[in-house]
Write a structure and sequence with these properties.
507 residues; 5-stranded parallel sheet
Length: 507
């Protein structure tokens, strides 16, 4: 038995479990949390099924537990992963109270949701669903359709050459060389056949006829649908760099892009990253982990200032400088001649290659061709339905009515894309569920993860609770008295509580 963690099979006293309390212990060598909600007791696995976040440090809200790392939410009753980024359920155990002692008994057999297959062809129920886009939103939607018992035809069409992958990893551990190749796929290869999901890779949809309910691929294949989800994500902004050859310039969006950068990095000693965006800076950190000299060139005065303000931006710049990144701020690249990279202030850098991380644009060409209403993205209603009935949109392309800010917003966050995919899937099945999640994203720089809940495009005050220098703080972005967003560093519980407060305010 672990010296600090009680053996839950031997029982724990009720005094240790007040209402809302949580105890971390072990059962047959596995770490388990026991939670009390009034007079009910639950026992589930102690590690999140996303990246194994410690749920004992998470937040219990009613009969759910939220993960401290990226805010996945699990049902304590069933173990089900109710909200992404976790997709798989937690194992759970039976709990028995005998007088004033709570015992954790055997592991429950079934943790997967048991849903009766939907009757296909019933009023309003689709028989053929097509998802365009094999990314965060597309995979989460396909997964949820099957979890909800949808038994009809399900096609997931992706222009990528690889199956849906953990895109955030492509600029972090995978690029740094600390994640294995097989960690990157969101699902193992056999998953698609087991769930009867027809995964069509390397396939670009070139047109959608929303009246005839048909999609056409670039190679002429076409498919009918009753309902569809368009989740085409975003494309990196491509900058013309005078003098540079295509072989010198790298972008990062796909698994193939990340692999290409790694292959090139193997023989490189110096790299120029253009753009001090989240992706540009994460690339800088990962290349530093490979021992490469990195210069970041960006027109901004301070990295990330537009999204996180100058204090957090300065902290992030200093953090990268401590790890050896050299910034050339207020500069742009004017020309490349062989290895020589000339900047707007006439200084010259030496580089084996360049990575351009200067932002993305939502991939709306297809939606535009289909005649869907656009407004700097694809316009959707609170149910994520586009202007065409039966056609839903989710992820980086979707601009939705956010009940928290009262504005129509579009964001580029992994967790939002997955959650929108999940809600769209339920609405394809006729649920009429509003998408009202508080936006959340995280970004990783060396050992520092920044978690951000809410949405602040502009604010009139920034309040810092704690200290950025000490890497222990919560930064609140306010307009008037209202907290629009909260960024935290090593304050995971505070981030979860801020999320819950925003959910309650926005209802
Ligand atoms: C390197 C990197 C790191 C990131 N890190 C983070 C992070 O740490 N935290 C965070 O919150 N967010 C992060 N993001 C952003 C996050 O990955 C995106 O917000 C998310 O992937 C959006 O999901 P999506 O489903 O809308 O689009 P995507 O995941 O991009 O998927 C779009 C899919 O559509 C396909 N497609 C496009 N057009 C067509 C077509 N015409 N026909 C067929 N298929 C098509 C593409 O091939 C792709 O499969 C990162 C992004 C990148 C690139
Ligand atoms: S580790 Fe739990 S949400 Fe990522």
């Amino acid at each position: 038995m672990d010296a600090e963690k009680p053996d839950l099979k031997a029982g724990i006293s009720l005094d240790q479990l007040p209402d809302g309390g949580l105890v971390l212990g072990t059962v047959d060598g596995e770490e388990v949390i026991v939670v009390r909600q009034r007079n009910e007791f639950f026992a589930v696995g102690a590690h999140c099924t996303h990246y194994h976040g410690p749920l004992a440090e998470g937040l219990v809200v009613d009969d759910t537990v939220r993960c401290p790392w990226h805010h996945a939410c699990f049902s304590l009753r069933t173990g089900e992963a109710l909200r992404a980024p976790a997709l798989d359920p937690l194992p759970r155990w039976l709990v028995e109270r005998v007088n004033d002692v709570v015992f954790v008994r055997g592991k429950s057999a079934a943790t997967e949701k048991q849903t009766t297959p939907r009757v296909m062809g019933a009023a309003g129920m689709p028989t053929a669903v097509v998802i365009v886009g094999g990314g965060a939103a597309g995979l989460a939607a396909a997964d949820m359709l099957r979890r909800e018992g949808y038994a009809g035809s399900l096609m997931l069409i992706s222009a990528d050459e690889s199956p849906p992958c953990d895109r955030p990893n492509l600029s972090k551990d995978y690029l740094a060389g600390t994640a294995q190749e097989d960690w990157v796929a969101l699902r193992p290869p056999e998953y698609y056949a087991e769930r009867n999901i027809e995964l069509v890779l390397n396939a670009r949809v070139t047109s959608i006829d929303v009246q005839k309910k048909r999609v056409v691929l670039g190679d002429g294949r076409s498919y009918q649908f009753d309902a569809m989800l368009i989740a085409t994500g975003a494309d990196p902004v491509r900058l013309p760099v005078p003098g540079a050859t295509d072989a010198q310039i790298y972008y990062l969006r796909t698994f193939a892009d990340s692999r290409a950068i790694i292959a090139r990095a193997m023989s490189a000693t110096r790299v120029v990253v253009a753009g001090a965006s989240f992706i540009g800076l994460e690339v800088a950190a990962s290349l530093r982990a490979r021992g490469i000299e990195v210069h970041v060139v960006a027109p901004d005065r301070t990295p990330l200032e537009r999204v996180m303000g100058s204090q957090v931006g300065t902290f992030v710049r200093e953090l990268h400088e401590q790890h050896g990144v050299v910034f050339h701020l207020g500069q742009t690249i004017s020309r490349v001649d062989g290895r020589k990279v000339s900047l707007s202030d006439a200084s010259v850098l030496d580089a084996d290659f360049l990575v351009l991380g200067v932002g993305v644009r939502p991939s709306t060409t297809l939606a535009e061709q289909a005649g869907l209403a656009l407004d700097r993205g694809v316009v959707v209603d609170e149910y994520l339905q586009t202007s065409a009935p039966g056609v839903f949109a989710a992820g980086d392309i979707a601009r939705w009515p956010d009940p928290h800010s009262g504005e129509r917003i579009r964001v580029e966050h992994w967790v939002v894309a997955e959650r929108q995919g999940q809600v769209a899937a339920r609405n394809i099945l006729g649920r009429r569920e509003r998408f009202d999640a508080v936006p959340f994203f995280w970004s990783q720089h060396y050992d520092v993860s920044i978690n951000y809940v809410g949405h602040a495009e502009n604010w009139d005050a920034v309040e810092i609770d704690g200290s950025l220098q000490a890497k222990d703080c919560a930064v609140t972005y306010k307009r008037g008295k209202r907290a629009l967003a909260v960024a935290t560093i090593f304050r995971d519980a505070q981030s979860l509580k801020a999320e819950v407060a925003m959910e309650r305010n926005g209802k």
